[in-house]
Design brief:
By secondary structure, this protein is α/β, with parallel strands linked by helices. The chain contains 14 helices and 13 strands. The structure holds uridine-diphosphate-N-acetylglucosamine and uridine-5'-diphosphate (UDP).
Length: 357
Amino acid sequence: MKKIIIIIGTRPEAIKTAILVKKIQEEYKEIFQYKLILTGQHDTMLNRVLDFFKIEPDYDLKVMTINQQLSELTAKIITSIDPILKRGRPDIVLVQGDTTTAFAGALVSFYNHIQIGHIEAGLRTFNKFQPFPEEVNRQLITNLADFHFAPTELNKNNLLAEKVEAKTIHVTGNTIVDALFVIKGKYSVTSNDKIVLITAHRRENFGAGIRNICDAIAELAIKLPDYQFVYPVHKNPNIHNVVYEKLNGYKNIKLQEPLDYINFIKLMMRCKMIITDSGGVQEEATTLGIPTIVLREITERPEGIDSNILKIIGTNKKMIIDTTLDLLKSNKLCNSSNVYGDGTASERILKILAKEL
Ligand code: UD1
Ligand code: UDP
């Protein structure tokens, strides 16, 4: 049996590894023995995902503090994981994406001479502050990893251009599509309600960015009284406090706690359009074919723009208002796109590991 340790810490990492964990439990239990470490970089937002998928962690390091800062968070994750790796000596550690958990998990595995598999490798903006700190986290993980599971050909080409050895790169699709398809298969929501769904949380949008976003939504809510603006607000206080201060009290703006995964996807399938700065939501919106405005200057997920589903517009208030009004007026329907995967990424990753470890 080969020993795998999976390290996750935030909501999207839980969503994007859930099907892989379930498959190890159900279909690969004769081949792999696994342990799941939660750093606890997120608490409630992550635990809701694990509850939904009925996944129990083996370790919960509970590192989260209110308004945590990057240096302390990184140091705490490294020092808390180190003894577990020293005791467990896995054949490989898997990390997902670009968070502080993923980077610190890869670094401490390297310090312990343990092989690293990077799920969602090769996404790039080539701007080290956008997204911050995720772009640099991703680049650093690439330097540490032994297996690079790239969602798309474009991601693979980014890695090849950085002289990553071709035989270590595997194009698998994004594991988020695996999770999304589980929900989509269970619930066929077809309505096209007058709902605009909003999420925002990026560090580079703290301050002026999130204030502009809120001002735009407030104005849109007045201009479009027959629309509901539904905003599940991220728990980061730099976002949460500004959003509640600026948008509370409008009768057609519904501020709410982060939704559990299933209710969020159901809402996505019902709404007319999405306004977001999230990475995962860009992938899901593209896969479902829901017109989406991306509140960033640049994206590491350009495949959704090429599919004519994502529009990248930044955080300028007028731009957000005008683009939203245009999209709603044209009432344009998008075709769904499989650029981010076909729902078999986790299976592909496990097959590769079963063969190569
Ligand atoms: C983190 C990731 C980001 C990812 C996002 C997904 C880093 C640096 N950032 O950003 O890449 O896109 O998660 O959502 O890795 N909080 C809670 N409860 C929770 C979660 C967060 O109260 O369940 C609050 C805490 O005050 C915490 C703060 O949010 O200190 C920030 O959490 P943190 O993980 O540092 O940043 P995110 O903005 O969540
Ligand atoms: N999501 C959720 N509930 C919400 C908002 C988002 O379950 O209230 C899911 C969403 O479907 C996607 C993931 O969280 O799969 C995206 O996470 P987030 O935007 O926090 O992080 P990012 O993807 O930007 O790293």
